[in-house]
Known about the structure:
Elements: E1 4-10, E2 16-17, E3 33-39, H1 43-50, H2 61-64, H3 78-84, E4 93-98, H4 104-115, E5 121-125, H5 130-139, E6 148-152, H6 156-164, E7 170-174, H7 191-208, E8 211-216, H8 229-233, E9 236-242, E10 248-256, E11 264-270, E12 273-276, H9 280-285, E13 294-301, E14 304-316, E15 324-327, H10 331-344, E16 352-358, H11 370-382, E17 390-392, E18 395-396, E19 402-403, H12 408-417, E20 422-426, E21 435-438, H13 441-448
Parallel strand pairs: 4-8, 4-9, 5-6, 5-7, 7-8, 15-16, 17-20, 20-21
Antiparallel strand pairs: 1-2, 1-3, 9-10, 10-11, 11-12, 13-14, 14-16, 18-19
Amino acid sequence: MAKSKSQYVCSQCGYTTSKWxxxxxxxxxxxxxxxxxxxxxxxxxxxxxxxSGKALIPSAVGSSSGKTQVxxxxxxxxxxxxxxxGGFLPGGVVLLAGQPGIGKSxxxxxxxxxxxxxxxxxxxxxxxxxxQISERTKRLRAKSDDKLQLATSNSAExxxxxxxxxxxxxxxxDSIQTLSLNEISSAPGTVSQITNSxxxxxxxxxxxxxxxxxxxxxxxxxxxxxxxxxxHLVDVVLSFEGDRYGxxxxxxxxxxxxxxxxxxxxxxxxxxxxxxxxNPSASLxxxxxxxxxxxxxxxxxxxxxLLVEIQALVNPTSFGYPKRTASGFDLNRLNLLIAVLxxxxxxxxxxxxxxxxxxxxxxxxxxxxDLAVAMxxxxxxxxxxxxxxxxxxxxxxLGGEIRSAAGWHHRVKEAKKLGFTYAIAPxxxxxxxxxxxxTDMRQALIDYLQ
Length: 450
């Protein structure tokens, strides 16, 4: 008989060790090891596997291409279909993750209702009852018929068996952290349960060409809860971001085997659920006042151009150590820009509290936001304003030089559409007469802040 033994598995990264430890050697997280009982595999199993199996029958690349056209399941939410690459692919598995309260269940209910107009959809919840889901459907005024069916279950085996019946084109599972397999003794949400439950459902989806959406929880740091292998197993990873108390909500693809990862769908929450924002730039700038510390940035959200307001507030510090706070912008990048400002200009910021805010709840990861943030800090510090007719973009180097920005044609086109007359941008893009090129940060501050 096989001998059982214990091992300790990190709930964050899946690293295993024979002894308990306070900190994981692989990911560096504290207090993440949980004990699991495993059966030791003998050498006979390895020997038996080495002599089993059958040879694969490969086919040429051109033998199957072009014969069948795969029809995607469209959600009828235009921007979301673009993010997915044209809709849900039959047999594709999508992982949707986001903060609690961001609107995952609301979005999935709307997707289920709109997709059910032309496809058979099953919504399985391990967190809510059928009555609760039905009430949300009524509140959202989502039109649905018999093609949309609801179920509740925490058993991965039962959900996989339902998928294998081939009765449904799309199955939504909310959420993967609530599922468990009977053969595994650990609690739902542990590494082994998430990994094995996902494998069972993914195999069922691939064997029946059923599109599946798995909902994933996130940790306090914002990463998807559970082992990293979960993101490798699925075909598409969607991140649902934004401010749960207001502002825009953004769905972007972090991974997409069947489409681009440069697209983003922008929503806003209303009484009737999530709605696509047709002109987010106009909405973000609608209440803007041209004060010192306010700069309009031309940025890219995926491949979509956006105009967003960057606000800065600079005050003398009341303590020995100045405070730096950033909302929607990387704090380490902010500290770097402050150091460049002090080194390359005459601004003295070492005794100033500096606060940066990106209006609308957006989180910027665009390198070309550097110049706008630096000009906002300088504007607030010197009490000078930038013209209402200007937008700003460009990456700042450690020497204070302004470097080129990706997708600058799209940024310029969006600025023109909203009535701006010129852009303060890298000199490398001066081929467009709309752009007033600058070579370094000091030139931008001297020439354009008044």
